[in-house]
Amino acid sequence: MAGTFFATFPPGDAAYMQAYDEMQQRDGSPRRHYAQYHDWLGRQPPSRIAQKRAEADALFHRVGITFAVQGEELGAERLIPFDVVPRALPNEEWRRLERGVSQRVRALNAFLHDVYHGQRILAAGVVPAEPVLCNAQYRPEMQGVEVPGGTYAHVAGVDLVRDAEGEFRVLEDNLRVPSGVSYMLENRKMMMRLFPELFASHRIAPIDHYPELLLDGLRSVAPTGVADPTVVLLTAGAHNSAYFEHAFLAQQMGIELVEGQDLFVRDDLVYMRTTRGPRRVDVIYRRIDDDYLDPLVFRPESMLGVAGLMTAYRAGRVTIANAIGTGIADDKSIYPYVPEMIRFYLGEEPVIANVPTWILRREEDRAYALAHLPELVVKEVHGAGGYGMLIGPTASRAQIEEFRARIAAHPERYIAQPTLALSTCPTFVDEGLAPRHIDLRPFVLCGRDVNVVPGGLTRVALGRGSLVVNSSQGGGTKDTWVLES
Amino acid sequence: MLSRTADHLYWMSRYVERAEGLARMIDAHHRMSLLPHAPASLRASLQSSLAALDLENLYHAHHERIEARLVFEFLIVGQGWGGSLIDCLRSARENARAIRGTLTSELWETLNSTWLEARTIAARGQIGAETGQFVEWVKERSHLTRGVTIGTMLRDEAFHFSRIGTFIERADNSARFLVARRDDLQPGADAGRVPDPFEWSVLLRALSAFEVYRRRYREVITPLRVAELLILCDDMPRSLLRCTREVYRNLRAVANDQSSETERRAGGLHSTLHFTRLESLIERGLARFLEEFLAELYALGERVAVDFLLPPIEV
Questions:
Q1: What are the pLDDT digits (tens) for A346-371?
Q2: Nearest to A61 among B97, B116, B311 (CB)
Q3: Which of A31, A293, A339, B247 is 20 to 30 A away from residue B285, measured at CA?
Q4: Where does a domain end: B105, B133, B153?
């Protein structure tokens, strides 16, 4: 028997003809590392899968694994759709990715230290000075500030995609407050609960030590002289879109989940208000943006931050993770230079390549891009979350013309990339099993050492043909397996 | 523990208890509405209950006439005043959500699913027809929440702050229940107008106190005996004596450098009840005693907030 689900798969959907499928080869046979799962899935009665999917939904709701949606009614919460078909990677492939993302984050940390100290790389002309120093993400307040271990990005999420040839590439770096790790952990718990038999039959690398590694890393960057540091997680509060993750991580690490109003600064020391009086805080794992951290230095109207925090930070009395000012290294206008940074600081060749990028500030790049807009993806350099983006092949003529005008007016605000046929993974949608585009966000932890738990968060674009995996725009997630053979 | 965490724990428990108190009050009147009763006496009872909850003006801002169905709807799903039963369940859940990491997952999931289900029920718009079932369900969820709290939470500060909230709110509810019946509690009331015995047995049932009363007094139900049960009976979990004892005990467990005066006031409130008899309270006037008790309880709540929950900023 061909298998219940695979009888009609791959359906030869034109939208996915170009893409590399993670599970199946062109002839429909499974790739080697997926063979056992493929066989198992083919034997499952559809009613069982349907029942398991409903069970997952009910559990996620009950546990309250939701995210708040911006722009909707206050307090609106949604589930991030979870797909029961896992994304699997063979161990050898993962080892290479792990090397690649660690290398990249080491170089980005070196770049941040350099930018806020001697600016060697600008002097050498490897990265142009203008997009760095005239960037809102560059924080002059950080110039000359020493941070423990010289580490700026303690937690980094590196977004990887696989192109039509099956080659992984870095799509972007997230060095400010990358989120999604709680979904990585909860998806694994859910899969183990729904399909324990799969974990008995496969050797899947565990990931549940992430909170421990994170806490360990945060403790290792405490201000010097603090023997037993107190670490807290700073959140914007229950209405923040990633609040579930904040509460989850604080609980898993056994640290306090604090809001700005819980902290105060006295004599350059940070304290939290407790039922037994003030208590010293040494490391703040913050999950709010730079702009809101200290109303005395950044946005004065911010109610989320702590007045005086920047002074305590500059005095070296508290560690903020990630450091202030990391946004300069993950800005899209800096992204094209990361491979050069790796060569410059580490003397190594990049393990994972960038996506080819046209920098529209450059005249010849701009000429090419303007002539090829319908084929390209154009991104605003300061945009995030899949907003402020043109996807040429699916855009209307009016949208393309609008971007043409915007590029002409401010070319320095845009970069362009070829439209990638992101790889696909079979996913359950209303019509049954169908290919959908996915990406991968491994989480890189930098403290005393650099650590990456195997896999990461796989996001899936659920709309047919869609390339946008962001949860705010209809993306879902999958469990990610690194298969030890 | 973070002061804000303690604050959320305290209010989470208060809202759970308040929802239960409202459910019991509605339950009592719902049961009364099933008695072969003069509608006028049901209306009078609803009127005095709204007054005891300080809700008379708010109610009349929405409805002119006192009518059981309208009052039930107002108290359960009424919009625009923020204190309905549904609002209490939401507030309990929102407070829990703000500190979900401090709660056991069982407790968080109980509060979360209570709210999700309540929202679904409210959205059906059938509260008028389902009042009895609904308040019964609220009580069950409250029992479940309490059971999960006691059965799963570590006996640390978090537990104590949650219990302080529970018992302050419960004492408040019990006192207001009696305030609503103040006319029956006047000195000599027993001799004069004969209160409706069916009405009082319905009230006792709504407070889960009917069997308790029978066991304890083995005589007909009289308002003053009910008052004694709800004020001075130490074994009765909803009595003022019992509640103030718990408030005092839990406050002592979380005492800090500045809380001694609060502890003293809580102890004072408890010992006043402990060393008195119903006769002395009647002599002073039960209604007056209840008003003073509510005022002192309110002041105690304020003190708890200042000492533990919102400590002044000292920079």
A1: 999 999 999 999 999 999 999 999 99
A2: B116
A3: B247
A4: B153
